[in-house]
Amino acid sequence: MTSFSVKFSATSLPNSNRFSKLHATPPQTVAVPSSGAAEIAAERLEPRVEQKDGYWVLKEKFRQGINPAEKAKIEKEPMKLFTENGIEDLAKISVEEMEKSKLTKEDIDIRLKWLGLFHRRKHHYGRFMMRLKLPNGVTTSAQTRYLASVIRKYGKDGCGDVTTRQNWQIRGVVLPDVPEILKGLDEVGLTSLQSGMDNVRNPVGNPLAGIDPHEIVDTRPYTNLLSQYVTANFRGNVDVTNLPRKWNVCVIGSHDLYEHPHINDLAYMPATKDGRFGFNLLVGGFFSPKRCAEAIPLDAWVPADDVVPVCKAILEAYRDLGTRGNRQKTRMMWLIDELGVEGFRAEVVKRMPQQKLERESAEDLVQKQWERREYLGVHPQKQEGYSFVGLHIPVGRVQADDMDELARLADEYGSGELRLTVEQNIIIPNIENSKIDALLNEPLLKKRFSPDPPILMRNLVACTGNQFCGQAIIETKARSMKITEEVQRLVSVTQPVRMHWTGCPNTCGQVQVADIGFMGCLTRKEGKTVEGADVFLGGRIGSDSHLGEVYKKSVPCEDLVPIIVDLLVNNFGAVPREREETEE
Q1: Segment 188-235, tens digit of pLDDT
Q2: What's the rounded Cα separation, in Å, for the pair 308 and 5?
Q3: Active-site pick, 159, 292, 508, 521
Q4: What's residue 579's pLDDT?
Q5: Per-residue pLDDT at 21 exceeds 70
Q6: Active site residue 153
Q7: What is the distance between the alpha carbons of residues 66 and 568, in angstroms, rounded to a whole number?
């Protein structure tokens, strides 16, 4: 076991995305007593994993009743596809040939997810979605052009999506191309490593980091350090690649809480303590088909220097003690429930470098009454004479030509940088004010990616849907656009309304945080099975966050428009257009 020690000054955070490599130091293991942990039997606190041949594996004594994913990990270590270059050999075998062996079939359907590759077996057999790691959603024009070049060769099967974790997913990839794609990603400073299955997902931060006049702290150094730790600087960190389930992390940098801390397994909330800058910690937030839970306080504060060490300690506690049976009950909050917050905290303390963890600070820096700001459109930066422009990317979908044009605009008008947001939009930062008018007149902004979209479109979010995703029950992206357009023709809305669509109960579209959410299902109408949706209502983001609840179940998609109209009129002040015209 290794412990990563990371030191940098919180008062002089670097603006560069380049950081020195993390260094390993031997750990200490000193138990810290806790009243919450006293009720837990000692044998329950025995780590369930052990190191063998350089990898963490589930001990023999804990293998009874484990789920199929755990069995696949035991049968063959997924990370060897990367660390031992197994992808080179796998890419030479046809998908059809792989089907003949259980081991290679599990490679393409399960283990390749450790490399960020998701086989689209159901709808696009033999093709893969590739998910990247893009800490804080920051990317460059060169990276964007490279991704465009990858998807362009796949024609109608190739496209890109901005995800709800500030990330890129590219589609249409075929396995023989993967070794070359991975090399190309590395050359432009990208990786897809450890972005799927039981790994740490993309670290989310403030999309306005470093340019926001009202930011609390620039989140980029922290999200970069977290990503570097998780992937060991793109080399693969096998200490955290055998978690019981996926794990999300974010660093809060603004009062707006653009990062959605309440739905992350670990959220860093800026706070000072005795004149020192650091973070209070929230833990356990997650979505799943069977349960959704908001993150809760760990009653812990860490100085800025300990952002990575505490992340490491929490991950190791989860890795060591999390159960591996029913995958609907293996997210970290289930472990917190079992041990109690104090019991879980005590296990984190054991894994801290000095076995110490300060209690939560009362000096929270996030203003609770802050009104969340709009980032679409033109806004001044903290740097005098510069602005950023937020562009609406309809439900996050882009084509190769779009990506090339975005890269060109970033170079021509900005600093060659793009920012992705959790609402599936894109920000171009660092634009001289004298260039704003010319940018706003660009054809891409006039015809495709408007900085001032209709009010119901601007906050519309949709997951991949069944066009590409085998788990999705319904089509989401095109349908969400069509239904929203129909609703806009029927009512006039003057306040922002966030509508989210997700194709299945896995809720990648995060319907529970939306004002109005739609979760795909199958239902019956006139004796026939049709695509439908469970309608959610009342989700809130920000300091008064709240997860929405089911308003109406199993509504046929073709019957959604009048229900949405009624919700908008009764709950969000919308006015039917015929009445609006009469009143005029």
Answers
A1: 999 999 999 999 999 999 999 999 999 999 999 999 999 999 999 999
A2: 8
A3: 508
A4: 57
A5: no
A6: no
A7: 46
How many angstroms separate the CA atoms of 542 and 372, rounded? 7
pLDDT digits (tens, 9 = 90+) for 120-176: 787 778 899 999 999 999 999 999 999 999 999 999 889 999 999 999 999 999 999
Q: Which of 73, 113, 120, 131 is catalytic?
A: 131
Question: What CA–CA distance (Å, rounded) separates 285 from 227?
Answer: 19
SS (H, E, C) 141-205: HHHHHHHHHHHHCCHHHCEEEECCCCCEEEEEEEHHHHHHHHHHHHHCCCECCCCCCCCECCCEC
- Chain-centroid distance, C-alpha 176: 28
Using the structure block, give the residue that is written with the tokens 């900085």: 451
d(C-alpha 158, C-alpha 170), whole Å:
7
* CB neighbour class for 205 (10 Å; exposed up to 12, middle 13-18, buried from 19): buried
Strand 168-174 relative to strand 159-162, pairing: antiparallel
Encoded tokens for 480: 């969400």
- Tokens 């069977």 locate to 290
3-state SS, 191-239, equals ECCCCCCCCECCCECCCCCCCCCCCCCCCHHHHHHHHHHHHCCCCCCHH
| Residue 481, token pair as written in the block | 């656009």
Indicate if 525 belongs to the active site: no
Print the SS3 string covering 40-84: CCHHHHCCCEEEECCEEEECHHHCCCCCHHHHHHHHCCCCHHHHC
User: Higher confidence at residue 32 or residue 469?
Assistant: 469
**Among 196, 284, 503, 520, the one annotated catalytic:** 503
Other beta carbons less than 10 A from residue 41's beta carbon: 7
Q: Catalytic site residue 372?
A: no
Written as one letter, the residue type at 161 is: D
The helix (run of H) or strand (run of E) holding residue 576 is: strand 575-576
Calculate Rg over the CA atoms of the chain. Answer: 24
Which position among 245, 331, 397, 477 bears the catalytic label? 245
- Answer yes or no: is pLDDT of 580 > 80: no
- List of residues 6+ apart from 153 with CB closer than 8 A: none
Q: Are 106 and 86 in contact (CB under 8 A)?
A: no
Tell me, yes or no, if 503 is annotated catalytic: yes
The one-character DSSP state at 111 is G
Active-site option among 111, 246, 397, 419: 246
**Active-site annotation holds for 245:** yes
The per-residue pLDDT for 3 is 37
Give pLDDT tens digits for 326-378: 999 999 999 999 999 999 999 999 999 999 999 999 999 999 989 999 999 99
Evaluate whether 257 touches 372 at the Cβ level (below 8 Å): yes
Residues 6+ apart with CB under 8 A from 61: none
Catalytic residue selected from 158, 160, 343, 509: 509
Which residue(s) pair with 270 in the sheet?
Answer: 279
Helices 341-350/332-339 angle, 10° precision: 110
What letter would DSSP give residue 133? B
